[in-house]
């Protein structure tokens, strides 16, 4: 009977291909959009995750996400250092000056000024150069994407110069920083030089990076700092999720992706469901003939579910292969790097599409179960 069910399914090539295409297209669309959406949201916290030296971030109490900073007082650094459980606490400045090259190319940049004595907060993933070279005067480290933006068509090399607020600096390192939500070049410099790039203001301390003593958890230390200083203290993961939550709540990105995901579900449900229903109805004569020779309803149910499983398996496999190929190709582009097909997305879409196919098969089952074999032969 299983072979008969398979022959019935592939016998009508047009409907079989239509079913496979609907499942494959919906699978590709849903996996693609959910993975890109997750990758885009994760980018909002990449600059936080890139700072490997911080267990806790301290900021103004009204700070909602990384790019929105209100300067702290210099005395706040000493207050944080005085909290029990703090191993170290260093300054971090964040600014967005404009960088210019010798040939006139310019771009707004994200400049991170790190502690001069310890260089805590420096990028650890380097493609060229060493992060310790930031100790040299008038030196910076720039990320690969930023370098290619400011020096298009040129190979990665050290020694290139940039002008930042009338300060000429030399590139002593190129980092492999995680891509940020906005495509600004990411520049690391020593704290005092970063302030000169932006222009001096009365207060310029953006964040305090804190390390916890052994035996003290980041969550416990963040609570202690908030209680003792009145400042906002978040662990690295908490701050990253704060950024994700801000963009989820205050931008139209979730709505736009949600519409596309909804269309994918609708296409899968309507097109695949309707096609599978019509396929079963048009094969009522064959099902009636099988019932006439003694095939039970339970066996017919198994045949229809087998057809549904074959359609789901082939369509899901093709859709997932298309999705994996898409992300493999785009992962080599600078703008779309780190967008990957998430296994959670693939598994979730697989369960969803299997549910869609099963619902469509259940809708057509009633016609088969109540079918009288005699009516088929009368027709």
TrEMBL record:
Residues 260-371 form the ABC3 transporter permease C-terminal domain. Its main location: membrane. Residues 20-227 form the MacB-like periplasmic core domain. The chain crosses the membrane at residues 257-279, 300-327, 339-360. Keywords: Cell membrane, Membrane, Transmembrane, Transmembrane helix, Transport. It is a multi-pass membrane protein. One of its GO terms (cellular component) is plasma membrane. Coiled coil: none annotated. This is Putative ABC transport system permease protein.
């Amino acid at each position: 009977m299983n072979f008969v069910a398979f022959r019935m399914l592939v016998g009508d090539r047009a409907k079989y291909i239509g079913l496979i295409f609907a499942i494959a297209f919906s699978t590709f669309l849903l996996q693609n959009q959910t993975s890109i959406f997750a990758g885009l949201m994760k980018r909002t916290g990449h600059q936080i995750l890139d700072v490997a030296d911080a267990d806790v971030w301290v900021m103004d109490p009204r700070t909602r996400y990384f790019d929105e900073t209100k300067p702290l007082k210099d005395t706040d650094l000493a207050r944080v250092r005085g909290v029990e459980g703090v191993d170290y606490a260093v300054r971090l400045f964040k600014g967005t000056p404009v960088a210019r090259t010798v040939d006139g190319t310019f771009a707004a940049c994200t400049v991170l000024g790190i502690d001069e004595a310890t260089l805590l907060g420096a990028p650890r993933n380097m493609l060229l150069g060493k992060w310790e070279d930031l100790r040299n005067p008038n030196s910076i480290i720039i990320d690969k994407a930023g370098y290619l933006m400011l020096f298009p068509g040129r190979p990665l090399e050290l020694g290139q110069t940039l002008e930042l607020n009338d300060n000429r600096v030399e590139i002593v390192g190129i980092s492999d920083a995680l891509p940020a939500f906005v495509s600004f070049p990411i520049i690391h410099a020593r704290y005092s030089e970063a302030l000169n790039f932006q222009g001096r203001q009365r207060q310029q301390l953006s964040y305090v990076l804190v390390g916890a003593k052994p035996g003290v958890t980041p969550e416990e230390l963040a609570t202690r700092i908030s209680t003792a200083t009145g400042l906002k203290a978040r662990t690295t993961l908490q701050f990253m999720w704060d950024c994700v939550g801000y963009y989820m709540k205050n931008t139209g990105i979730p709505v736009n992706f949600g519409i596309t995901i909804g269309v994918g579900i609708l296409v899968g449900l309507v097109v695949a469901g309707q096609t599978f229903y019509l396929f079963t109805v048009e094969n009522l004569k064959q099902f009636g003939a099988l019932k006439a020779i003694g095939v039970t309803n339970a066996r017919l149910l198994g045949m229809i579910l087998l057809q549904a499983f074959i359609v789901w398996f082939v369509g899901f496999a093709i859709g997932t292969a298309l999705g994996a190929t898409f992300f493999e190709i785009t992962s080599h582009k600078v703008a779309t790097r780190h967008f990957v097909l998430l296994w959670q997305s693939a598994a979730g879409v697989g369960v969803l599409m299997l549910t869609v196919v099963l619902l469509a098969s259940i809708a057509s089952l009633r016609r088969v179960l109540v079918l009288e074999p005699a009516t088929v032969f009368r027709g």
